[in-house]
Amino acid sequence: MGNKKTKQVFNNHNNLRSNNKALKNKMIIIKNIFVIMFTILMIAIIYFVYMEYRPKFRNSIIELGTNEISVENFLVSNRYVKHARILTDLKKIDFTKVSEVDIKLSYKGREETVKLLIIDTKAPVVKFQNISKYIGYKINADDFIVDKIDLSEMTVTATQIGDTTKFNNYVVKVTVEDRYGNKTTQDCILTITWLKPIVYIELGSDFSKESVLVNIEKDEFVMPILYSMAKKIHKAQQSALKNGDSLKIYETYRPYEVQAKVLNGLRTLAISNNDVNNGINTGNWSMTWFIATGLSNHQLGVAIDTSLVKVNSYKIKTMEKFKYMEIVDYIEYDMPTNMHELSAKSAVFAYGIPSNSKTKWKNAPLASTITEGAVKLQNYCTSADLTPLASEWWHFNDLDAKNIVRGKSRGQYYLSGCASRKEID
């Protein structure tokens, strides 16, 4: 009986110990929960205080030329936009200059000052061009620029070429750089050419070879002409050289724009000057005999204006493997008029003959003012199958070439180089 009672007391004691341990564990859990909740609460309070009192604005960077900015440019977070304001008068800021500006802002009445940095990181926008110039041209970087746009000051530079005494194409690196170091670069082509790319003539002034051609050496120039006609000119020249004479060519291809300027100039001069008017409107002659009112054979590349000289001396020179004659001294034959005098005095025949006929000129009487030199010139050219123009002693056409190219050219372009030149690598 006693043993049974002792055993029961022992069991009760163990149960009490187990209950105390469980209660103790619950208290620990409750304490940990409280600590966690307290920690979370404190974090929330700290976060709220931080978000409420932290700096709401930051420095801002914008590109030069930016037209508008707003408070959003300066906020550290858009959550503050509702109560944020810019206090600085933005109208007083010059957005076209690189600068650093103090900007005053407020959030719920609390003011802050930050920096607005206006920077330039964009390269200039540039339209480049290739150019044609003459022997001895010195590089001018601006010649390669059609247009350039940037909000800051720009400088234009180009690589220099030491020798521009050869007819050739040269690569020139052109750079446009703004004052903040932003660059736009392009390789442009410089063509050293035989012809002036653009010709300007004062109204009423004389049109001459110097107006169109670039002096190469002494009095020698490139004269563009259709290849088939060039063969006939070569034949005429060979005939002249055999007799100690030489052609002196003044003009071949003529741009339509130049043709129109000469026409308008002659019309204006004829109105104001009776001598000019009477000179071109007399007998069978009229203005259209001296300057075409539409497309002329010069625009087709089938006409040549040439005089004749007596060769006194010459030299034989070599260019690469080819030999050529350089006429050193000569005397120009007397002609009815000066070259390109647009008047009836320049007529080679007594009356007008259709310019598109290859044969009718053969039976026409010569003008009374014709000279020995003009007759010799006509013989050299007509023996090479060139056709004379009745109104101009210097003018000869290649009607065969004209029939080939008829309708294929309007002359509305300039020739800015020599197609047979040696290209650079």
Task: Write a brief caption for the model.
The chain is of the alpha+beta class and 425 residues long.
Tally of structural domains: 3
The CATH class of the largest domain is Alpha Beta
Alpha plus pi helix count: 8
Mean of residue pLDDT values: 84
* Helix/strand/pairing category: alpha+beta
Largest sheet: 5 strands, antiparallel
Instruction: Count the E strands.
Output: 15
Report the helical percentage. Answer: 25-40%
Rg calc:
46 Å
Q: Measure the end-to-end span.
A: 126 Å
Extract low-pLDDT stretches.
Answer: 420-425
| CATH fold type of the largest domain | Muramoyl-pentapeptide Carboxypeptidase, domain 2
| 3D shape | rod-shaped
The CATH architecture of the largest domain would be 2-Layer Sandwich
**How do the SSEs run, as a string of H and E?**
HEEEEEEEEEEHHEHHHEEHEEH
Strand content: 25-35%
Walk me through this protein's architecture.
- By secondary structure, the chain is α+β, with helices and mostly antiparallel strands.
- It folds into three domains: 60-119, no CATH class; 125-192, Immunoglobulin-like (Sandwich); 209-405, Muramoyl-pentapeptide Carboxypeptidase, domain 2 (2-Layer Sandwich), CATH 3.30.1380.
- 28% of the residues lie in helices and 25% in strands.
- It has eight helices and 15 strands.
- It has helices spanning 2-53, 209-212, 227-242, 256-272, 274-280, 297-300, 372-382, 399-405, and strands at residues 60-63, 84-86, 99-107, 110-119, 125-128, 131-133, 145-149, 154-158, 169-178, 183-192, 245-251, 303-319, 322-332, 387-389, 392-397.
- The strands form four sheets. Strands 11, 12, 13, 14 and 15 form a five-stranded antiparallel beta sheet that branches. Strands 1-4-3-2 form a four-stranded mixed beta sheet, with no helix packed on it. Strands 6-10-9-8 form a four-stranded mixed beta sheet, with no helix packed on it.
- β14 and β15 form a beta hairpin.
- The N and C termini lie far apart (126 Å).
